[in-house]
Design goal:
The protein has 1 helix and no strands. It has 108 residues and is an all-alpha fold. It has one domain. The longest helix is centred in the middle third of the chain and has 100 residues. It starts with a helix and ends in a 7-residue tail after the last helix.
């Protein structure tokens, strides 16, 4: 009977030791998984930040190009407007100059 009790107690002790080892192994596996997940999340954040920076730079470059194109179009339009009206502006300037240089004495 004593032999049976000792075997039962030994089996219980061995079962507890196995459970403790299994818990320790599970904790180690979880810690490794947590570290791996943290590294993956960190890497994903870095890639996302880099992608955002690239897209932002591309958008800024595109906006700058559109702005320059708009300025060039506005300059061309202003030059065309002036070129189209230059003869008329010259005539008006000549009339003003003539009016200033040769005032009408009867207008006073």
């Amino acid at each position: 009977m004593k032999d049976v009790v000792e075997r039962v107690l030994g089996a219980e002790r061995e079962a507890r030791e196995r459970m403790e080892r299994a818990k320790a192994d599970a904790a180690a596996v979880r810690a490794n998984a947590d570290r791996a997940a943290e590294a993956t999340v960190h890497e994903a954040r870095e890639r996302a930040a880099a992608l955002i920076r690239e897209r932002l730079e591309a958008a800024r470059s595109e906006a700058a190009a559109l702005l320059e194109a708009g300025k060039a179009a506005a300059r061309a339009e202003a030059e065309a407007w002036y070129a189209k009206r230059e003869p008329e502006l010259d005539r008006l300037a000549a009339r003003v100059l003539d009016a200033v240089a040769n005032p009408d004495p009867g207008a006073r």
